[in-house]
Amino acid sequence: MIILCENFDDYSMSWLSRLKKNIVGRAWEYQTQGVLWRLIPAENGYFVGEDRDVDAKRVSFFCLDQRTGNVLWEGVQFGEPWWIGIEAVYHEKVFLHEYAAPDMPEHKKIYALDLRSGKTLWSNGEMKFIFAHDGRVYGSKDTLDRRVFFEVDAETGNIINEVDASYLNVLKEMIISKRRDVVEFPLVVDTMSVEVPNVKQDILRGVAVPKNLVQTEYLDKGDSLVVGFYNDLSSEAGKPDYEQHVVVVNKSTDKIVYRDTANIHAITPVPDTFFGISNFVYYIKNKQVLTAIKLTSTSDSNGKN
Q1: Strand 213-221 to strand 120-124: parallel, antiparallel, or no bridges (unpaired)?
Q2: 107-116 b/e with 16+ CB inside 10 Å = b?
Q3: C-alpha to C-alpha distance for 251 and 220, rounded to whole angstroms
Q4: Following DSSP, what letter does each residue of 200-246 receive, concatenated?
Q5: Residue 182, Cα to own-chain centre: how many angstroms?
Q6: Average pLDDT in the 112-120 region?
Q7: Where are the domains of the chain?
Q8: Comparison of pLDDT for 232 and 82, the residue scoring more
Q9: Plot region of 54 (φ>0 → left; ψ -120 to 50 → alpha; else → beta)
Q10: Spatial separation of the C-alpha atoms in residues 75 and 54, rounded to whole Å
């Protein structure tokens, strides 16, 4: 059929836009200098992460837009080069902690950063972060004979009140009961309720030497089925060698529309190799590259576009 348009450019752009909405592909990538050690999704559409240089024992922090991959800030470092990490992300604040001792998980100190700029707003060297809620930070301080709890202004770090443990417990339970997690994690394949004919055979065709699939997971996202699995390539006892794959299947056509080898020579398969937010799926490739896949615009399993 031939369609005549007075403005071909407008029509062609409209057609390409509609076509693009139905294409699954890599939307963006972000590569760290060292190991992408930790990644925290913020509720307002950003990622905050740790970039750790294991050899130099130095860590820096970064913030990205979840949909575009645009960098808000990166390379943020502190006087403590290594024993410092992300505590929490709350609204427009990022909270960091140091460690009480290198060989112990106990946290100490609070650093409050502005989410948009990465600049330090305030810090407290005597208090330990517990949680944040409704413009307040709740922290604790150990004295000689007891542990004291405080309510702190999240903007300034100024102490507002001393509070008791029972009040904090009630408040924390209330927060947990109202929490809505926007992140979708995969389920193990043994509980798969979605039937997609010939998916396993098609997936195996893309694996160089399929031997033994382990730790297989899936995420049902509307018209897409995202599958992650490890292929066991170990050839010698005591020398594990796993290859990690991520595959997206279009459930309407039973066709693979995206595949990638996320990691090679992994020493052990781990769960939650990818996760979903809205119509995006994210995974970390080769321990350094945060990769975003944009799925089709078809409504996902939660009825959202």
Answers
A1: unpaired
A2: bbbbbbbbbe
A3: 9
A4: HHHHHHTSSS---EEEEEEEEETTEEEEEEEEE---BTTB--EEEEE
A5: 11
A6: 97
A7: 22-178, 187-294
A8: 82
A9: alpha
A10: 15
Fold of 22-178: Methylamine Dehydrogenase; Chain H (2.130.10)
Name which of 118, 120, 37, 125 is nearest 73 in CA terms.
118
Q: What is the mean pLDDT of the chain?
A: 84
Asked whether 150 and 127 are in contact (CB, 8 A), the reply is: yes
Query: Minimal CA–CA distance to 47: which of 228, 302, 272, 283?
Result: 283
Which pTM was predicted? 0.84
Whether 17 has a pLDDT exceeding 60, the answer reads no
In the structure encoding, which two tokens stand for residue 116, read together? Answer: 């948009």
- Choose from 17-21, 110-114, 212-216, 224-228 the range with maximum mean pLDDT: 110-114
C-alpha to C-alpha distance for 107 and 130, rounded to whole angstroms: 10
Spatial CA neighbour of 64 closest among 84, 49, 43: 49
Position 154 scores a pLDDT of 97
Query: How far from 111 is each of 114, 126, 148, 243, CA to CA, in Å?
Result: 10, 11, 19, 38
Classify 68 as helix, strand or coil.
Answer: coil
> For residue 167, is pLDDT > 50?
yes
- Is 88's pLDDT higher than 60? yes
Residue 206 has pLDDT above 60, yes or no: no
Separation between Cα atoms, residue 267 and residue 288, nearest integer Å: 16
Q: Compute how many other C-beta atoms are within 10 angstroms of the C-beta atom of residue 258.
A: 19
What does the pLDDT average to over 76-93?
96
Looking at the chain, how many residues does it have? 305
CA distance 75 to 97: 17
Residue of 59, 63, 106 lying closest to 85 (CA atoms)? 59
